[in-house]
Amino acid sequence: MTVAKHGKSYVEARQRYDREHQYLPSEAVALVKQLKSSKFDESVELHVRTGLNVRHADEQLRGTIALPHGLGKDVKVVVFAQGDKAREAEDAGADVVGSDDLAKRIEEGFTDFDVAIATPDLMPVVGRLGRILGPSGKMPNPKVGTVTMDVTKAVQESKAGKVEYRTDRTAIVHMVIGKSSFDEQRLLENYAAVVEELVRAKPSVAKGKYIHSITLASTMGPGVKVDPSRTRDILGEAPVAA
């Protein structure tokens, strides 16, 4: 069994901070930016381990949130629609619009998009793409507003940075909250929005400790532990910018 080895810059970065300490959110954001070493603009990732039993349907988390400062990237949106709704999607700024032809492209390997939206009448067409779109979290779903007749609103919100969150099989929520080029305040505000949303969305049937751990990291950088008890007044704990 081969064990992956980290590069020199990664190893050096891990030696520049206390890997076991749980930092304040503002401290963690600052550290993640300082520990970035690659030349490209890395994404900043948030990983929240919950105590939910996701084997029970009523303890699964899934929803959407519009980040205050977006993701720092051009969100590519495809829409399954026809007729007037197809024209509406195009006018709203959708990157690709289609029906059976779009489904065929995806079956043939087209996955270069971030969000898929569909009108209800085309869900039978989209349904056969479940094995492709499901694992990547791109399957349209009425619960998160991506199966809708209001395609203009859905496209515009997705383009503006509305993102989906969900627990995986191990009860962890993985999300991108911005780019390492964002200043600390913008990253902190996106972080606060996500954490506050997860707290708000806590299933009423959940028992025991809800948030077990929170980790922040850039794409190529080491993880920084964040104090999971700091879920309220996150922005109030941040140092005032000069």
What would you say this structure looks like, in words?
Belongs to the universal ribosomal protein uL1 family. It comes from Conexibacter woesei (strain DSM 14684 / CCUG 47730 / CIP 108061 / JCM 11494 / NBRC 100937 / ID131577). Protein L1 is also a translational repressor protein, it controls the translation of the L11 operon by binding to its mRNA. Pfam families: Ribosomal_L1. This is Large ribosomal subunit protein uL1. By secondary structure, the chain is α/β, with parallel strands linked by helices. The chain folds into 2 domains: 117 residues, Ribulose 1,5 Bisphosphate Carboxylase/Oxygenase (2-Layer Sandwich); 84 residues, 3-Layer(aba) Sandwich (Rossmann fold), CATH 3.40.50.790. It is built from 8 helices and 9 strands. Strands 7-1-8-9 form a 4-stranded antiparallel sheet, with helices on one face. Helix 3 runs parallel beside helix 7. The relative contact order is 0.26. The mean pLDDT is 90.
- What is the total domain count? 2
List the strand order in the largest sheet.
Answer: 7-1-8-9
**How many E strands?**
9
| Cα shape | globular
- Residue-averaged pLDDT, rounded? 90
* Strand residue content: 15-25%
* Element order: H for helix, E for strand: HHEEEHEHEHHHEEHEE
Largest sheet: 4 strands, antiparallel
What name does CATH use for the topology of the largest domain? Ribulose 1,5 Bisphosphate Carboxylase/Oxygenase
Low-confidence stretches: none
SS field, number of helical segments: 8
For CATH, the homologous superfamily of the largest domain is named as Ribosomal protein L1/L10, rRNA-binding domain
Q: Could you tell me the radius of gyration in angstroms?
A: 19 Å
- Tell me which CATH architecture of the largest domain applies here: 2-Layer Sandwich
State the helicity in percent bands.
Answer: 25-40%
- Look at the helices and sheets and give the structural class: alpha/beta
Distance between the termini: 51 Å
What's the CATH first level of the largest domain? Alpha Beta
